[in-house]
């Protein structure tokens, strides 16, 4: 009987494991091998094993570091704003009222529609001559901004659209965290004579910490992926001023067909993400132990 | 008491104003989809279009919108089906028999953490080798790669919440393990199943990077179709807006109809990490 149970247990997970193995592990090993080769498919080039050459090339590649910088900006400004606004909204919505589910669902709209659609929407809004955003600025007596055509501004335009799209994610995650805090704790703090700010900083924030860490971690990992908005809004331009790491990686692999170099770049990103994730998870676990 | 009421009004007013600001880009898009050519290329911009005819929707549909919707539907529903069926089997095994301990569960989740750009290149070469580029199965499999781990984790949470005694009773009554799973456990986690399916469908429907690289001319999901329209010489704003609304409507309807499950599903996933 026990053995039969065990067989069923294995049988149940086997399909999932097989699919994941076939389409993740095997190609990943293959592409690690590629990252050690020079292989420019577009030039009809042959595959030559060059060891860590591609990785060394990353360090002297100005364009790569430019893309890293833009990704970093998205990470600091974009994710930072999403967190602050999301937290504020979550605190506002953390009370019961009629139709709350509907209001929350409406707030979630930007993250539910496709990033491609988000790109379309903002492309129209940012239009230099005919867009509503510059019209509003003019109404306020300000100069129009060349949102997508200026190399100083374009990356921030992408970040603004990203903030619009993903603040809802922070909102819903933090709201969920807030709702998991039992009401008695608020009551107890109030009885002890704590004010609003004291309750927030000494009760709510510490209890919310694990959720905050997970939410920020997920968005930080996503910041490395930001691609759709770049394609739709600026295509990395003007010049390479709004290129992100995922976009440069895509260009290297599928425009220049430098498969080896693109693989190395992807592996570098993977390493950075794994390191960041581990730092976050370590601080998450530390909390749970203490 | 007066002050608290004033506070309440202020809070709801703030929520309302922020919601309006959040929704305004989307509303603008809806308006644009109805505008005539002369109306979206004007200064000052026109806010409310003169007429609300569906001409641009018809045009957008002809420009590949209908084909895109069909392809997305095929890919997203197949992916959801795979993720739900295989995912709940695996989740049940992980939750009930603790097979493979934490390590197996964690490995499954870690597959999802891969940045797509890191996995798309090997997948491209892999499918090229199989001559599967530009086919439905390539995109269905690739989307499953992301959705299956997600479904496993979400369903695992729901199964763990279910008291084990319910199935034990069924086993005593002569049901097999498979019967206990299919007739007792599965119906009880139905709300979780709905939430998980909604998320899988949404992800697959909205996905762009894999679709752009692995699809081409025969398979063009709606996202690729929209992006193609915006890159063109003459940008047909109203048609693009119309198609992007068409692409969003199924998701929005699903979300509003299933809002109870959606919020609960997100809540559960978030709190459990």
From TrEMBL, chain A:
Task: Please tell me whether the keyword Membrane is annotated for this protein.
Answer: yes
How does this protein sit in the membrane?
A: Multi-pass membrane protein
- Cellular localization per UniProt: Cell membrane
This chain's source organism reads Thermatribacter velox
Q: What is this protein called?
A: Sugar ABC transporter permease
What range(s) does the ABC transmembrane type-1 domain occupy?
68-280
Supply the CDD domains for this chain: TM_PBP2
Highest classification ranks of the organism:
Bacteria, Pseudomonadati, Atribacterota, Atribacteria, Atribacterales
What are the alphabetically sorted keywords of the record?
A: Cell membrane, Membrane, Transmembrane, Transmembrane helix, Transport
Give the family this protein belongs to, as stated in its UniProt record.
Answer: Belongs to the binding-protein-dependent transport system permease family.
Q: What is its main location?
A: membrane
Membrane-spanning residues: 12-33, 75-93, 102-125, 153-178, 199-221, 264-284
Pfam families per the UniProt record, alphabetical: BPD_transp_1 (PF00528)
Automatic annotation (TrEMBL), chain B:
| Major place of residence | membrane
UniProt membrane topology term:
Multi-pass membrane protein
Q: Which UniProt keywords apply?
A: Cell membrane, Membrane, Transmembrane, Transmembrane helix, Transport
User: Which InterPro entries does this UniProt record tie to the protein?
Assistant: BP-dep_ABC_trans_perm, MetI-like, MetI-like_sf
Q: Name one Pfam family in it.
A: BPD_transp_1
Mind telling me what this protein is named?
A: Carbohydrate ABC transporter permease
Q: Which residues cross the membrane?
A: 9-28, 73-92, 104-130, 180-205, 235-258
Please state every residue range assigned to the domain named ABC transmembrane type-1.
69-258
What is the similarity comment for this entry? Belongs to the binding-protein-dependent transport system permease family.
Alphabetized Gene3D superfamilies for the sequence = MetI-like
The places in or outside the cell where this protein is found are: Cell membrane
